[in-house]
Amino acid sequence: MSWLKNLSLTHFSKPKSDRPIYRWILQHQPHSIMEVGLDDGSRAEKMLQVLSAQLPADAVLKYTGVDPFDSRPPGQPTLLLKSTHQMLSRHGVKARLIPGEPSFALPRYCNSVGGHDLVVISGAASADEMQSVWTVLPRVLNDQSALLWQPQGPNSDFVVYSRDHVVELGEANRSKRAA
Predict the structure, then answer these.
(1) Can you give the pTM of this predicted structure?
(2) Is 98 helix (H, G, I), strand (E, B) or coil?
(3) Which helix (H) or strand (E) holds 97?
């Protein structure tokens, strides 16, 4: 990918809220990404374009997507599981797509998909939904991971959380549930 394309994605792409993700990818060159809430799938495609251009040709890219896919409620953009998998295959990534709402899917699969360098959580995941997953998110991260989430909803700015901060949030939520 040319420096002009990178410049375009990191400074001028729409929606503006996704730009910090592309910058983080350019700076850290993760080998594995988990995305929770794929919206229309275009962000996944752009993340993989940026990443595949930065890594050596023999690098293995791992992508995990958690989304309702075919079971999305009316009013949300259609995103079919099969077409998403085809799109990811075109980018040469080892893809694992997990259908379901994050609050149900992440606790079920977190032990089998661990070790991601970057976790991106769409603003479609509400603060209430996140309460139920903070305790399991540390299991999908490694020591150098970052988690980017839009806590104020779609199109809001992404906030970067370190793995240590995610662990603290998980412990705080575990304490709330125990009380």
Answers:
(1) 0.92
(2) strand
(3) strand 94-99
Residue 138: which of 111, 98, 120, 159 has the closest Cα? 111
> Which residue, 146, 40, 126, 140, is CA-closest to 84?
40
Instruction: Report DSSP letters for 123-171, one per residue.
Output: TTS-HHHHHTTTTTGGGGEEEEEEEEE-TT-TTSPPEEEEHHHHHHHHH
The 3-state DSSP class for residue 104 equals helix
* Higher-scoring residue by pLDDT: 16, 55: 16
Q: Give strand pairing partners of 120.
A: 35, 148
The mean pLDDT value for 36-54 works out to 90
The answer to whether the CB of 170 falls within 8 A of the CB of 134 is: yes
Instruction: Tell me, rounded to whole angstroms, the distance of Cα 144 from its chain centroid.
Output: 15
Let me know if 97 is exposed, middle or buried by CB neighbors in 10 A (0-12, 13-18, 19+). middle
Number of H helices, E strands in the chain: 7, 6
